[in-house]
Structure formats: structure tokens, C-alpha cells
Write a structure and sequence with these properties.
This protein has 182 residues and is mainly α. It contains 8 helices and no strands. The chain has a domain of 86 residues. It is elongated. The relative contact order is 0.04.
């Protein structure tokens, strides 16, 4: 890099101990700042010109509309974040990291996350759930179903069902299918 004659305005130079005690090293106070601090705020005179009043009214109504829109957007964003927080909290419960009694405030069916999960930044909650998800053991896939919709037994279930009658086997398959569905 070639040296330039331009000063680096972003470089902050700390005073050395030798120059710190020198009276010229101290920054002089700006007299304009003192003068501005002492002057009281003067009230703004109301607009007397009809064109100015009309322009001010337009600006005021535009600002009010912008404020309403910002409030609506903030509300939508808060609802979206709450839904995502509820889903992430539910995922923590599914992964076994949280118990329903510790993850939800009050009744778990109302899906109100606990205060500590509500106060946790959403990005940190996302990353925490992702870490637990990556460490979770792979869940077994349910066995494939025949085209008729009949439940297919796993190898372990077939060994259990070897000595059963047809009626017992149908009940066994129905029981296994209902447990698999839940």
C-alpha cells in the first residue's frame, strides 16, 4: 500500500504519557456548543399561510398513516415470532430436552412458552433447537403399507405373531397400526 497525504479520519490516536500532561494536548471546548446549550428552545410559530397549513396537514396525515402501518407490521411480526417460538418450544419437547411442564406456562394445550423461553432471543432458540436436532438419534421409519392399506409387520412383530390365529393376527395388526399412527 502506498502512503498518501490524506489523513485517516477513522484512526484514533491515543495520547502518549508525555503529551497527555501537556496543556496543548487537551481539546478546547467549542464556544458554540456552550452558546447553543444556554439558548432556550423557542416555540415555533403556527403557519398562517393556507398553503403551508395544507402542506403541514398532508405531512401530518402521511405520518399518521406511516405510524399505523408500522404498528400493523410490528403486530404481524410479533405474531409470526410467537408462532415460531411455539413451534421451536414444541420441538424441544419432542426432542426430550424440555418437559411439557417446564416448556409451557400454565396449560400446555394453550401453547404459551415459559418466560425463560420467551425472553430468549429467537435466533439463539433456533440455533439451540438445530443443535439438539442434529444430536438426536434417527427415528425409525414406519414399515411400508401394502396397496390394500393393510399394516405391514416388522421382523420383530412377525416373530411375535407366528403362533397367532387369523383373528388374533388381525387384532394384533390393528393394535400395532393404531400405536404407529399416534
Amino acid at each position: 500500500m502506498e502512503p498518501t497525504n490524506q489523513p485517516n479520519c477513522f484512526l484514533k490516536v491515543s495520547p502518549s504519557p508525555a503529551t497527555a500532561a501537556h496543556p496543548a494536548a487537551e481539546a478546547p471546548e467549542a464556544p458554540e456548543a456552550e452558546a447553543l446549550a444556554e439558548t432556550p428552545d423557542e416555540p415555533v410559530a403556527p403557519a398562517t399561510d393556507p398553503k403551508q397549513k395544507e402542506a403541514l396537514d398532508k405531512v401530518a396525515s402521511a405520518l399518521a398513516k406511516i405510524g399505523e402501518r408500522v404498528e400493523a407490521l410490528n403486530k404481524v411480526e410479533a405474531e409470526r415470532e410467537l408462532k415460531e417460538r411455539q413451534a421451536l418450544t414444541g420441538e424441544l419437547v419432542k426432542l426430550g430436552v424440555e418437559f411439557p411442564s417446564t416448556a409451557w406456562e400454565g396449560d400446555p394445550s394453550k401453547m404459551v412458552p415459559a418466560k425463560r423461553l420467551q425472553s430468549e432471543p429467537i435466533a439463539e432458540l433456533r440455533s439451540r433447537v438445530e443443535i439438539y436436532r442434529s444430536c438426536a438419534p434417527k427415528r425409525p421409519e414406519p414399515p411400508a403399507q401394502k396397496e390394500t392399506g393393510e399394516y405391514m409387520l416388522t421382523k420383530e412383530e412377525e416373530q411375535l405373531a407366528r403362533g397367532m390365529t387369523a383373528v388374533q393376527l388381525d387384532k394384533f395388526k390393528a393394535l400395532r397400526a393404531s400405536r404407529r399412527a399416534s
